[in-house]
Design goal:
mainly alpha; elongated
């Protein structure tokens, strides 16, 4: 039989795919992380575009370029909206990817900020080396102009935000479970 301290440590370990209250809470948690990550990342990028005097609408159309090709720039607001939708799709992919990692690599759970920054850097290079070459976006160098801005965005607005939202949500669920006496059941489920 595990000690009370062991149960408490085990119950703090986040497993987003084996949620405290089932699949609905898992979907809500992953959805929240996706939303916060997507909004923070697109805000960072749009502010950067505005500071440089660039058109954020064209940037969103540039995201849609990945599936539409050159015709994207003839589509106006519709292709910009598609670009925004694709952006949030990528944020959902990043969130799911991190959740899987957090489920199977336990050290990620103990240091969400550090793990989040490292995940953001990893995800940036995953996008550059694997995802983007599979799209209609023309081949480009690994380090295009302003590449470091994208890396900073991923290291601050993608990985850490996903990690911190998932960690915060798990902690709030654990506090709720402790107040209703379900913490021990969750510890057994996570183990």
């Amino acid at each position: 039989m595990a000690s009370a301290n062991g149960d408490a440590k085990q119950s703090r370990m986040f497993s987003p795919l084996r949620s405290l209250t089932g699949w609905r809470e898992t979907v809500r948690t992953l959805g929240l992380a996706t939303l916060v990550c997507g909004v923070a990342d697109i805000t960072f990028v749009i502010l950067g575009m505005l500071v440089r005097g660039s058109d954020p609408l064209r940037m969103l159309q540039g995201i849609a370029f990945s599936v539409l090709g050159r015709d994207t720039y003839q589509g106006g607001l519709m292709t910009a909206a598609l670009g925004l939708l694709l952006h949030f799709g990528v944020a959902a992919g990043a969130t799911g990817h991190y959740a899987l990692l957090a489920t199977f690599v336990r050290p990620v759970l103990r240091h969400p900020l550090i793990a989040g920054v490292l995940f953001g850097i990893y995800f940036h290079f995953l996008m550059q080396l694997v995802v983007l070459p599979l799209t209609l976006i023309p081949e480009r160098p690994l380090f295009p102009a302003m590449w470091w801005v994208q890396l900073i965005a991923h290291a601050t607005c993608v990985g850490p935000i996903i990690a911190l939202v998932l960690s915060w949500r798990e902690q709030s669920l654990m506090r709720g479970a402790a107040s209703t006496g379900r913490a021990g059941a969750h510890a057994a489920q996570v183990a």
